[in-house]
Amino acid sequence: MTLESNHRDIRESVARLCAGFPGEYWRRLDRARAYPQEFVDALTAAGFLAALIPDRYGGAGLPISAAAAILEEIHRAGCNAAACHAQMYTMGTLLRHGSAAQKQKYLPGIAAGRLRLQAFGVTEPGSGSDTTSLRTAARRDGGRYLVNGQKVWTSRAEHSDLMLLLCRTTPREKVAKKTDGLSVLLVDLRDAPAKNLTIKPLRTMMNHASTEVFFDDLAVPAENLIGDEGRGFGYILSGLNAERILIAAECIGDAKWFIGKAVDYAGRRRVFGRPIGQNQGVQFPIARAYADMRAAELMLREAARRYEMDECDGRDNGGGRHRESGRGYNHAPGEESNLAKLLAADASWAAAEACMETHGGFGFAEEFDLERKYREARLYRTAPVSTNMILSYIAEHALRLPRSY
Is 103's pLDDT higher than 80? Predict the structure, then answer.
């Protein structure tokens, strides 16, 4: 079975939906740095954003390969899932580690589209990728936590009802391990007073709804603590492999879009009395980008296969059984998930470069959509995990080299 036939019905449905959101729609939003509300509403109504939520909570209960197919096809159509993709992987922390009451309270609303869990508050100005050095703190005060601190690059905070917040409940100097003392709170942004929560948009090179968030004695009910206090770092990690697989799928979709555009233009554009696609100087970069994309695509499929296999076995990295299966959330396989994201992000960027070179000056014209997609594609070599961080992971965990940080 080819990758194209993998979840064919889902792919065709996504493609039909995306056909209603052509390049002009995205160009208009890009100019205004506006949120694609109509697009997100359409995906929600079609049930695509509830793909990984178990059917007992009103979701589709699909495997992660189906979710990857959805995101790949969105990007292959020239659209952008960044406005809503976090809903697929951030809710995994709630699904895997939340209480029965929390899951029943929030997951049906998320599945139905009544609630949005899009915001993921982890990164801070002073810590970056060094997550254990974050300074946002939550102090227990009776039946609530009081949160103080700052987050940055918190995408979609202005368009989300709920936020998963990683914060310190025990100071770093008072824990034996630097990963201890971190906790996850589910913050209801709708109830947050303006004096206690400030969200400021960050204008970036692409339309990504990025923000910085300031907490000033923000009260969060203690019942919104996910899992056990002080164990939040592990809870966040449990969803990162899903995130890598899904982002890799978007990169594969982008690469296919760029390659398709390059091939089409190279066949039509004539210079010196011949199509430019006849020239090896044009052919070879596109062919190389295609080869890179296919290799990354195969690694992505292997990562998804291993992820689903481990899930069916009921295993995680610690050898324990899942508290909640969730059809798509597991620790393993770290190596394959990281490799898929690394290779797919590189393949997407190579395809973007080849496409821009093929179009020459027209690649910079807004109406061709290349410059917008070019900017969007560059993001994934840096976020949500940088290429160098993945290489460090591979060096340590696959090659058994000494840890570098």
Answer: yes
